Amino acid sequence: MAVAADATASVTPLREKVSRPVVVAAVLVGWLVLFAVLRGRQTLTLAAADLTGLHRWLNDVNDTIGANRDSNPLFLYFFNEIRLAIDHLVTFVQQLISQPVGARPVPQIGWLGVVGITGYVSWAVGNWRVALLAVAGFTFFGLQGLWQESMDTLALTLSAVLVALPIGIPLGVWAGLSDRFHRIMTPFLDFMQTMPTFVYLAPLTLIFLIGGASAVITTVIYAAPPAIRITAHAIRSVPETTVEAADSLGTTRMQQLVKVLLPMSRRTVVMGVNQTIMAALAMVTIAALIDAPGLGKTVVQALQSLDVGTAFNAGLAIVVMAIVLDRVTTAAAARTETARRTDARLLRWRRPLLAAGAIGLGFVIYVSHTYVWAAQFPGNGTVGGHIASAADTTTNWLQNHVSGLTNGLRDVLTNGLLNPFQTLLTDSPWWLVGIVLVALALVLGGRWAAVTAACCVGLLVGTGVWSDSMTTLASTAVATVLVMLLGVVFGVWMGRSALVDRVVRPTLDAAQVMPPFVYLVPFLALFGATRFTAIVAAVVYAAPVAIKIIADGVRNVPETTVEAATSAGCNTWQIITKVQLPMARSALTLATNQGLIYVLSMVVVGGLVGAGALGYDVVAGFSQGELYGKGLAAGLAIVLLGVMFDRITQAAARRTRA
User: Fold this and answer.
1) For residues 595 and 542, is the Cβ–Cβ distance under 8 A?
2) DSSP string of 628-645?
3) Rounded to an integer, what distance in angstroms lies between the CA atom of residue 392 and that of residue 400?
4) What is the distance between the alpha carbons of residues 119 and 494, in angstroms, rounded to a whole number?
């Protein structure tokens, strides 16, 4: 009996492992059969200009809020006051570095002063190499003819960070100290980081209108979660023995925080500041859709007019700013460790040098405030003109000489993969697609994932944009498949070779620094304004995170296991497919989760370059008042897709680890 029981116990996991792919295949086959019978029925198709009752009701809500904004007590004494305070902060920072002040034709601190401040701060928190990079980067903005646009972007980013950090870091400390608060905050943070950047814009414009203040408020909400999450992680990562030692010395809770926990987690907290700044820059560029000034507006206008040269020039400025801000904050995070390794004699000279530099900086700021030549960037941005011209020339050359290859690639993937899958989703009855999604969620993620999927499907039907949601789902699924193919190929390569990892990883890190907008520009030149452009941009945007996760998963497979497989006569292919990938399946599932979320956020941004579907609905809602309600509903649909993807893949990852 014991032997029989053991045999049954050993067979059961195998049966479960085999049955899951079989059930998935059965669900898909059943879907195809029913699609052939029911195609074109109950598809909930809605024309671009058509509205549902929900959309009209949302339009009425928007009109009612607009009519009562200055009389409703909630707006009069709360929302309007918040907007006014943020607007004062934004105006102050803009007048400081980017916009004229009163009768002054220039801001309070001119270009020379801003470059001087940038170089000095970069040197003070980092080193001379970072300072040189920062000075060169900011000077480049002026040479591009984009000084004011760049400073507007910087002003909005700084304003958002100045608000987000005083909120995020204390909440992060609280979550690090309190298990209960950490459990409360985690679902909210997960939800906020799952939502694509597009989604934040529409509901907040309903409350705060459009403009710089709304852009900053939106950016604060988007950029605060990284600061909260990373600060909490930093506090929780302090060794328990250190805390116990402080307890034994009779320190109070506040003394432990100030003298032990914060100093020991300082580097990680600064990395949280880095992530907050990068998130703020990404959102500020997207917020150009709600009339935020700066480089984002230049890119949006250029993309809408298909002006690749102007978009490339402004996109390059965004990339340079992202690199500078990233390198400065990264150097600040590493500063403590660097100082520990630096010769004491050099450290003694550092303070006098910083003091002397501060005096020089004060003089530079005074000059830039007083003299026009130091306030207005000299020249007329000829470098930017040359860059735009070169980008246009390259675009024309590519379209004339490489269009056969690019169009062929586009047609193969579009006609062979995207169109059939999109047809399957959009021409199937809505209830059939819903049943399939719930069934897949049940098989892959379990009961609660299925419940979440069922709720999301029901709400998607209620939004009135079901067909557009299925179109976005098709693009997201196809792009995610391509991301995972790239992720497995390059992730396995990096995981098996330390040399390849050292060579490739810096490129992946740099790619993750760039805001989503930037990825659209080169592919617009290659493929034109089509949905395929958005899909390729989404693949390139999402691939770095998937590749890094898979590489780390493969590298973490125990060396002894690989050696045992080698000694058993396995070749390289067998080791990869039979040992390393199966043992790294939790990393594969996590990579799928992150790839889906990144792809979704980029696919909807692709509404600016012809991707259509939900992204177009959101953009149309900003530009056409009668479609505002539909745009708001489309934003909700994007959230529902993101939540459904996230819950299913996270549940699948947990089942894989179990």
Assistant:
1) yes
2) HHHHHHHHHHHHHHHHHH
3) 12
4) 36
Query: Cα(252)–Cα(449) distance, rounded to whole angstroms?
Result: 44
Instruction: Look at residues 512, 532, 514 and name the one whose alpha carbon lies nearest to residue 523.
Output: 532
CA-CA-CA-CA dihedral for 120, 125, 128, 132, to nearest 10: -60
Residue count of the chain: 658
Mean pLDDT throughout 641-653?
A: 83
- Give the 3-state secondary structure percentages of the chain, helix then strand then coil, rounded to 5: 85, 0, 15
- State the Cα–Cα distance between residues 419 and 169, nearest whole angstrom: 46
What's the confidence (pLDDT) of residue 657?
60
Tell me, rounded to whole angstroms, the distance of Cα 210 from its chain centroid.
22
Q: How many Å apart are CA 52 and CA 59, to the nearest integer?
A: 11
Type and span of the H or E element at 117: helix 111-125
User: Is there a contact between 135 and 119 (Cβ–Cβ < 8 Å)?
Assistant: yes
How does pLDDT run across 544-590, given as a tens digit for each residue? Answer: 889 988 988 888 888 888 888 888 888 888 888 888 888 888 888 88
pLDDT in tens, 316-325: 898 899 889 8
User: Can you give the pTM of this predicted structure?
Assistant: 0.82
Type of residue at 60: D
pLDDT above 80 (res 279): yes
- Scored b (16 or more CB within 10 A) or e, 410-428 reads beebbeebbeebbebbbbb
